[in-house]
Amino acid sequence: MTEIIAEIANSHQGSPRNAEKLAIKSLEAGADAVKFQIYFTDELLVENHPRYLHFKKQSFNEREWSKIINKVKKRGKVYCDIFGLKAFKLAKKLGVDGYKIHSSDLVNYFLLKNLSKEKKKVFLSTGGSKIAEIKYALKFFKDSKNKPILLHGFQSYPTKIEDTKLKRISFLKRYFKNCASVGYQDHTSGGDPFNFYLPLIAIGMGVCAIEKHVTLNRKKKGTDYYSSIEPKELKKFIEIVKKSNEALGKNVFSFSKSENNYRAEVKKHWVSNKNLSKNNIVNENMIMKRVHSTNFEPLYYDEIKGTKLFKNILKDEIINFSNIKKKNVAVIVARSNSKRLKKKAYLKINGKSLIDHLIRRTKLSKKIDLIILCTTKKKNDDKIIEIAKRNKILFFRGDDQDVLKRMIYGLKKIKSVASVIRITGDDIMVDPHYIDKSITEHNRLNADYTSSKDLPSGTEVEVFNYRTLKQIFNISEDTSGTEYLTNYIKDNKDYFKIIETRINKKHKLNYRLTIDTIEDFLLVKKLLEHMKEINKEHDYTIDDIKNFFIKFPKFNKINKNIIQKKIPISFNTKLDWGKNEKI
To answer: In percent, how much of the chain has pLDDT > 90?
Structure first.
């Protein structure tokens, strides 16, 4: 049987009497349970949040909650949304029948840790949440006898029919069948007759619980009236069929503009609960709160726990990789077994091998903390290791074909990695200024992946969140094609936070400076010989490159007809989120 839960939310309009009355009426109407939202404003939002005063007016104190819940519990089951540890402790004290974690708290380490010890029913809201965040929350309940219930759906005042994406229910049921059940929380317009049918479709898809908003009088248009029920006539059957197809959605985890806005608005971030000085350790001084921001990604507590602060931070200041001491590691991926240009890693320009040039160029970055060169165990790559030793950088020898495996196992040697700057041996002219700019933007926004593709080919780099790289390694159906690692991100863009480094318009130049053929090599050789002549053998800029082609336009024709190497047809970038993590 599907459990029907009446969601009170803020339909009480800040009145304890209304909350009690609405809950009792819902139970009398046949609801299996009612659900309240317990929150304390200082635990929910930062003080300068635009909705701080709104929630302040709507919230009840502990005495009021005690009176409401004790009365309603005599009539039926009571569940509670808990928006922080203080709310959780109160709900537990009042003996509620179950708890719900809002989607904004799916990576709230302390809340999840405490709740995982409870033996009562637990609901986890998943609206606007990434699969990785859902998996993270479920880890806390892996030893629990009671499987949590994942509630699909999000509130968009009201949520549009086309944004409900009911097919995501099937996705959640399939991938989390061994560790969770799935329910549906409906937030479509209470004034649309179709809001009655969507829960019926969800029931047909096998959900175990339906959550529906309720209100005493929808005509008064009070808080949360948008999604609340009032009986209406149903529309014609043909309209229902048409809207059903819309509601199912095409890609279960593609976020609409509304859902992305919702995610940006409600997702909590780690902030300091007091002013902290540089070098303080990140620990229980952190709390998750909503911040008024549209572009930040929430960090996982495991990524920041035990790290030192890079600078002084103020109370409620967001924690990101820019203000904690974790390493930005450049991984140079190189091998001598090149098909199009044999042993190109050892070719020399100005008396130095291509890899030497690349390492020296990379060392000009002010943001990179460590460089590791990852090559294969093959005998013909021994010279690459000698180059790494000569340049006093780290090195690792690993899998020949699986580039990501080689990178991951190389990075395991390094402690406290935040971001990984991937540099291929073909791109010896990477730009230090844009490396640093990419790292800064990536770490500030806590992105999964950052590219600088608008730069000339061969001068750009990619920045990955280390956790994201491990996720791809763990859940890819096939990692043997990770020589083309970028495609594992781009082909699964709905699952990752992707940003593009802002490139100065004058630097968006259509030059091919990667080295894959003899023509490419000859062009770069001419360019670097010129840079040495003007005393900029390694510390040249994009402007210097541009001036070279202005002065010698004929050289741009050397590799003009080279066709970019094609990705193999059998290339598989699919991710299996049901896989267990190995690393």
So the answer is: 72
Closest Cα partner for 381 from 408, 343, 330, 434? 343
Contact 398, 409 (CB under 8 A): yes
Predicted confidence at residue 231, as pLDDT, reads 31
Average pLDDT over residues 261-284: 92
* Dist. CA 424–CA 369, nearest whole Å: 18
**pLDDT on residue 308:** 95
DSSP string, 16-65: HHHHHHHHHHHHHTT-SEEEEEE--HHHHB-TT-TTHHHHHHH---HHHH
> Domain 3-262 belongs to what architecture?
Alpha-Beta Barrel (3.20)
Strand 286-290 to 268-272 pairing: antiparallel
> What does the mean pLDDT of the chain come to?
91
Q: Which amino acid is at 133?
A: E
Q: What is the mean pLDDT of residues 75-93?
A: 97
Residues near 158 by beta carbon (within 8 Å), at least 6 away in sequence: 187, 188, 189, 190, 192, 226, 227
Give the architecture-level CATH label for domain 328-510: Alpha-Beta Complex (3.90)
Give alpha helix (H) positions in 180-299: 197-204, 237-248, 257-266
Calpha distance 258→261 (Å, rounded): 5
**Residue matched to tokens 């909590």:** 268
Whether 313 has a pLDDT exceeding 90, the answer reads yes
**pLDDT beyond 90 at 559:** no
CATH code linked to domain 267-325: 3.90.1210.10
Give the closest residue to 120 by CA, choosing from 143, 101, 148, 94. 148
Q: Where are the domains of the chain?
A: 3-262, 267-325, 328-510
**Of residues 375, 380, 423, the one with CA closest to residue 397:** 375
Phi-psi region of 511 (alpha: psi -120 to 50; beta: other; left: phi over 0): beta
535 phi, psi to nearest 5 deg:
65, 35
Place of tokens 């959780």: 88
Q: Which two tokens stand for residue 572?
A: 């598989």
Do the beta carbons of residue 269 and residue 299 sit within 8 Å?
yes
* 302-308 own/partner pairs: CB under 8 Å, 24+ apart: 302/109, 303/418, 303/467, 304/270, 305/109, 306/281, 306/282, 307/281, 307/282, 307/416, 308/279, 308/280, 308/281, 308/282
CB distance 126 to 211 below 8 Å: no
Q: What is the β-pairing status of strands 98-101 and 77-82? A: parallel
CA atoms of 112 and 132, how far apart (whole Å)? 15
First to last CA, the chain: 39
449-470: average pLDDT: 96
Are 126 and 172 in contact, with CB atoms under 8 Å apart? Answer: yes
